[in-house]
Known about the structure:
It contains 18 helices and 16 strands. The chain is an alpha/beta fold.
Amino acid sequence: xxxxxxxxxxxxxxxxxxxxxxxxxxxxxxxxxxxxxxxxxxxxxxxxxxxxxxxxxxxxxxxxxxxxxxxxxxxxxxxxxxxxxxxxxxxxxxxxxxxxxxxxxxxxxxxxxxxxxxxxxxxxxxxxxxxxxxxxxxxxxxxxxxxxxxxxxxxxxxxxxxxxxxxxxxxxxxxxxxxxxxxxxxxxxxxxxxxxxxxxxxxxxxxxxxxxxxxxxxxxxxxxxxxxxxxxxxxxxxxxxxxxxxxxxxxxxxxxxxxxxxxxxxxxxxxxxxxxxxxxxxxxxxxxxxxxxxxxxxxxxxxxxxxxxxxxxxxxxxxxxxxxxxxxxxxxxxxxxxxxxxxxxxxxxxxxxxxxxxxxxxxxxxxxxxxxxxxxxxxxxxxxxxxxxxxxxxxxxxxxxxxxxxxxxxxxxxxxxxxxxxxxxxxxxxxxxxxxxxxxxxxxxxxxxxxxxxxxxxxxxxxxxxxxxxxxxxxx
Length: 476
């Protein structure tokens, strides 16, 4: 009993209560046991608080200067992709929940809120709105970027539409839209486009994309006025947008330096002749555009693009080359007129390769230094390397990148290395000083004899070679 009295005295002292000895109480033992459990619970709570505070004091991160923590926090926040983020996974919120010290840093450093990434679903749509308010309050008056992924939302649900209206108001109200310099929005309600164009007047970069599941004709039925000039916009990337809207957006952004349009939607009710009559039928020049990617649609739309659009400062150009493609002669004229500034050309190919067509195009752009081939099957690997052995095809070439589709076939043909050696040997013979050959999503063998064959090209020190496979430099 003395030991019990001692424990009870200590517990009461810690809990700030008076201790009544058992011999003086007259209560039955069960009452003491109940009281003892309560006191023991209080002891456990106090001990837990003590251990937590002690661990914070002992923690190596607690001794880190705030300047170091800020650098770490900034790297963490900038590395999160919108597909991996959510209201519960917002990096700023996670970092702030570690300790009060970290929370103070996160709250007081507006640069940590320059980028906001979140994936919005049916389940977390409601909780995203207050999170956006926190973001708006913390980033203060700093230029910022926003990444939103709204895949999976049902636009036909009245409840979802109501929530999206509140969400739209949270994003595009006050000074928030004017401070946004970059937006990457995946699968937003199409009517948001009008708000973005009209409210975000200082945007430098805009990416808009939709998926096949939410790009039916019905969602684009509302008229979308996009004629407001976006003079500040420099980079525009759009995916699965109606073709007429693609042209409207492009014509509204005269100062673009990069434009990417992939898989534009063409519906039977689109009237290109009527649209072109309402718009200009004369050449349009984009003097600052340096990077251009365009996926062809149908003959009349491609014809309009190739005939009337000019890019005198182009440095990078990507275009699909398919057998039986329309506007062949017009495309050849377009390529022949590409400016001397062009450095990189990307061919997006189909499984059926029209080699004579590709060779004809490459002969028209002898000045380029980088060639990229995307979607070409591995069975065409050796044939492509053989084609590059001709000195009249791309004589200034210094880099080549072969990008195969993920999950594509594996190149088991060992002859590709000998063809690569032959191509590099020809490049060296005609004066090329260095060459980089890169393969992406390609599984292939790299044997000791292959390594030795390539190494012999560098033995005199006058030719530098770098061969990269799936982002790893191959030893040679």
